[in-house]
Specification:
Elements: H1 2-6, H2 11-51, H3 60-70, E1 75-76, E2 82-84, E3 89-91, E4 100-102, E5 112-114, E6 132-137, H4 140-143, H5 153-160, E7 166-169, H6 177-187, E8 193-201, H7 204-212, H8 216-223, H9 235-253, H10 256-262, H11 265-280, H12 290-306, E9 310-316, H13 319-323, H14 334-343, E10 348-350, H15 351-356, H16 376-393
Parallel strand pairs: 1-4, 6-7, 6-8, 8-9, 9-10
Antiparallel strand pairs: 2-3, 4-5
Length: 395
């Protein structure tokens, strides 16, 4: 169409349009290059100054290739995804099992953990404990993003009391509340679990719900209290399908970074789309109604009570709350979420109110005072607050 139109445009105008177009495109790629390099350079300089060590600048793909030379069985962490075999469609809720698993790098090093028999971030022996003191449900913050296993929330809970019963972490990166409900139902150990820690991260989870409600497999957990994919009994079958999925992903990874740059991934997601959403108020960037969370929590609480366990709602704050120095109760629907939890009579542990807000420097709990997940100190403070609060409530 553009070629046809060009026949009717004067030559000088065509030249001017071409120059403007190339200039705009060049400017966009300059911005993309800046967004790609600048954040990493900030973290590299800070990390080198603090530790005297070199920041690991490899991409996850490069790190995987290097580590695979030492351990052929190494894998990368996979989020929950739709899988299919010849007869059925499943939604996986865990990663590859019994593997050295590469996670992420926000603190200068790639976090690695040995996955358990079902693909979660636990020492495998936790599944054999007679009692589970804490069972964690959540997304990447529960999963333990970008720190090694002993420094995750679950790892710190184990360190706080060495005589404690088992601590089982079922958190997975990319999870939202509906996936977490599904995980609770699929991997719950009947008669063993004392406390369930529902890890909620502000803002993320309401956006996740909106996407999850479009998934037919996940919707079954809302519609039918007895629905199950029987993932524990089908673990071997699921692992085979997951590994095939990983191999296909690895084939694509070699060009992923370049493709993202060509497609202006960072420029679109950090500048263009936010501007468009403000102008057009796009529904795609509006989170789910908090009442959708109520429905999911109600089912989780009923399931928990039915199995003689205790559900705790752990509210985790994001970096944006502290960089903006905002204690606004309306930020990320904070007040509405707290009200919903209280109305369901679910005990609340508010990490913002009980820990981070009281901290003299909450930004120090994030990697290099930048956005992302928590650093080792942040996860430790979360675990200590949970442990202390529940211990006091149980007296």
């Amino acid at each position: 169409i553009l070629s046809l139109i060009s026949f009717f445009i004067p030559k000088n105008l065509k030249i001017n349009i071409t120059i403007v177009g190339i200039s705009i495109l060049f400017a966009f790629y300059l911005i993309e290059g800046f967004l790609t390099i600048k954040p990493k350079n900030d973290r590299i300089a800070i990390y080198n100054n603090i530790t005297g060590k070199d920041f690991d600048k490899r991409t996850k793909w490069q790190f995987y290739q290097d580590l695979k030379k030492e351990d052929p069985n190494v894998v990368v962490s996979l989020p929950g995804i739709l899988l299919s075999d010849d007869n059925s469609i499943y939604f996986s809720l865990s990663g590859l099992s019994n593997r050295k698993t590469i996670f992420c790098n926000e603190n200068g090093y790639y976090s690695i953990y040995n996955s358990d028999r079902y693909g979660f971030n636990n020492p495998d022996k936790e599944w054999d404990k007679d009692k589970i003191e804490y069972l964690l449900i959540g997304d990447s913050f529960a999963h333990g993003a970008c720190v090694n296993e002993p420094n995750t929330i679950s790892g710190n809970l184990r360190k706080l009391n060495k005589n404690i019963n088992g601590v089982l972490n079922l958190g997975m990166s990319g999870n939202g509340p509906l996936i977490e409900l599904a995980t609770l139902r699929e991997y719950f150990l009947n008669g063993k679990v004392k406390n369930i820690l529902w890890i909620y991260i502000e803002r993320n989870d309401l956006f996740d719900i909106k996407e999850e409600l479009r998934n037919e497999v996940l919707l079954n957990y809302l519609k039918d209290k007895n629905f199950s994919q029987n993932l524990m009994s089908k673990n071997s079958q699921m692992q085979k399908i997951l590994f095939e999925k990983l191999e296909k992903q690895i084939e694509r990874e070699g060009t992923v970074g370049f493709n993202k740059f060509i497609k202006l991934f960072l420029t679109r997601n950090k500048i263009i789309l936010p501007l468009m959403s403000k102008v057009f108020k796009s529904q795609s960037v509006i989170p789910a109604d908090p009442e959708e969370l109520r429905n999911i929590l109600k089912l989780a609480n009923e399931f928990t009570n039915k199995n003689n366990s205790k559900l705790y709602f752990i509210y985790l704050p994001r970096y944006e709350r502290y960089i903006q120095k905002s204690n606004n109760d309306n930020l990320f629907n904070y007040k509405k979420i707290i009200k919903i939890v209280n109305s369901l009579n679910i005990p609340l542990i508010d990490i913002h109110e009980d820990a981070f807000k009281k901290h003299s420097d909450p930004l120090s709990l994030f990697p290099f005072r930048k956005g992302g997940h928590y650093n080792e100190k942040g996860y430790e403070l979360v675990a200590k607050t949970i442990f202390k609060t529940i211990s006091e409530l149980e007296k």
